[in-house]
Amino acid sequence: MALQLSRFLIFFLYILAHIARSPATSPNSTFLFNSFRQSDLNLSGSATVTRTRALQMTNGQHSMEPGIKGNAFFTASLQFKKPTASKRTKSFSTRFVFTIVSKAHQSGGHGFAFIVAPSPNFSNAMGGRFFGLFSIRNNGNTRNQIFVVEFDIVQQTNLHDIDESHVGVDINGVNPSASEPAAYYTGNRKKEQGVLDSQTPIQAWIEYDGPMKQLNVTIAPLSHQLKPNCTLISRSIDLSPVLLEHMYVGFSFGTQKLVSKCYILAWSFAMDGKVPELDLSHLPLYSSGLELYGATKGFKEELGEGGFGSVYKGVLSRSGIEVAVKRVSHGSKQGMREFVVEISSLGRMRHRIVVQLHGWCRRGDDLLLAYEFMPYGSIDNFLFDVKGRSLSWEQRFKILKGIASGLLYLHEEWEQVVAHRDVKASNVLLDGDLNGRLGDFGLSRLYEHGANPKTTQIVGSFGYMVPEFSRTWKSSTSANVYSYGALLLEVAYGRRPIEPERHCEEMVLVELVHSLWKDGRILDAMAKGLGIATWWRK
Ligand SMILES: *[C@@H]1O[C@H](CO)[C@@H](O)[C@H](O)[C@H]1NC(C)=O
Ligand SMILES: *[C@@H]1O[C@H](CO)[C@@H](O)[C@H](O)[C@H]1NC(C)=O
Ligand SMILES: *[C@@H]1O[C@H](CO)[C@@H](O)[C@H](O)[C@H]1NC(C)=O
Ligand SMILES: *[C@@H]1O[C@H](CO)[C@@H](O)[C@H](O)[C@H]1NC(C)=O
Ligand SMILES: *[C@@H]1O[C@H](CO)[C@@H](O)[C@H](O)[C@H]1NC(C)=O
Q1: Ligand 3 centre and the CA of 42: distance in Å?
Q2: Exposure on the CB side of residue 227, measured as CA atoms within 13 A
Q3: Do 334 and 453 lie in a common domain?
Q4: Cα dihedral 77/78/83/86 (nearest 10)
Q5: Structural domain count, the chain
Q6: I need a labelling partner for 44 at 20 to 30 A (CA). Which of 175, 451, 486, 498 fits?
Q7: Range of the domain at 470
Q8: Which residues are marked as active site?
Q9: Backbone φ and ψ of 335, nearest 5°
Q10: Residues 310 and 248 reside in one and the same domain
Q11: Ligand 2: which residue has its CA nearest to atom 11?
Q12: Whose CA is nearest to atom 6 of ligand 2?
């Protein structure tokens, strides 16, 4: 009798313990966050919500074993199995926007993961390659019951990682059962390789079809607002042994000795239904975390006035890289929208002709952009005899050819059409080898190849603007080619496109050269002492 009673008591306690542990399930399993509040999420480790309401997974710190880790979960658990006797696994889909900011590509770690897990408590997990989810002791254990999609920026060959920027699907551990180098498909199904730590927002879709047991993962840069038609990963995979009835969904991050910042800017999720649309036009601001104010020693060394603000010289403290920091006041003409265009377009472009953007941050009302430092400044320093500098014809020709190839890339070869809209001498910068590089994308517009850009305002600089622009709304790329033509004449002639102090018919360079050409005197349109004539007659 006593034995039976104690058995009953043990059974009773067991039931009680289970009831007490059964998690609070969300009444509806669809949610949408276009920005985050602290109370929306269950945060632990290095994960925080910033003042701009982005979910920041890292604190920018690094540490050796067990490393830095951070987790962020939707506060309620969700029901992943049908409540019927069949307990069939449901379908689910999620969509989010993320940004990974490293000092330079391949210098950061380790990335983040989207996870579905039985509990939000990962106090025993390790950072680094374990993503704050597993440890040496439990990695790969089938009792983990954890489904992971990793966005990994470090190649661990011992974990069979395929490269240093890949998306992988993991079950119960960090050895991917499927992975692909980061890439997306454009409208015409062309595959574009990308890097995950591009410092710019990337959208991701993860979709699981319960009855069909199929998983799809798709990514695309934010400039492609629609989901690409082709998936990055599409696999038959049965998640029913992995997913329990009640699971938590969220994100996890881990690093060790490599630093990078990793943000989730918006997130939506749906169980058995269509995932809510994200509002991509109002994403929270995030910071690249460079210490830019300190880097410029309090904005002491001014390099000049840029299109929309002053430019200062600085040095990034961690890497020692010299940068040009553009300080844009929030109150200036260049609104937040233009600013974001400049960062998201420039940050992703990697072409030798484009001045590389290293990062940006916000300080009070100022926005700070750190560009690759161009030691010789802009080409107009050389054209108009500032400090006795000059360029030979060969040097000028090389610069012009470079800029032409850069424009070709922007107009026809990049994933989208980039209309710079402010091609002029002061935006042509010279690197250490006197190569011409295109800078200041503050007025640029992006659009799809083949699309008809809607022009709403006339922009550009006097002397470089196509004259019929106001009448015909010429496409922005042809307007750029016109501006390039004006630049070409300016560089060959060595005078500014408009010189108001001159006589009326000599005021506008394009008109002057045109009339010289009509009179058969085109060789008069060359800079003094260049010897173009000899080159021309060869
Ligand atoms: C449930 O759905 C309603 C609207 O459909 C929404 O307002 C609410 O925030 C949702 N609750 C959760 C926990 O997502
Ligand atoms: C998390 O799990 C650990 C180990 O399993 C446990 O010691 C700790 O109390 C748990 N923390 C919370 C907040 O539940
Ligand atoms: C977050 O998770 C911890 C650990 O499981 C739990 O103790 C805590 O109550 C959770 N907080 C919220 C707000 O859900
Ligand atoms: C997907 O394909 C359809 C039809 O072929 C096309 O109209 C659409 O633009 C494509 N979507 C994307 C995002 O490429
Ligand atoms: C996954 O992608 C395939 C092929 O692109 C498509 O047929 C299928 O419907 C997709 N499944 C889900 C769950 O999105």
Answers
A1: 6
A2: 17
A3: no
A4: -110
A5: 3
A6: 175
A7: 379-537
A8: 422
A9: -75, 180
A10: no
A11: 121
A12: 123
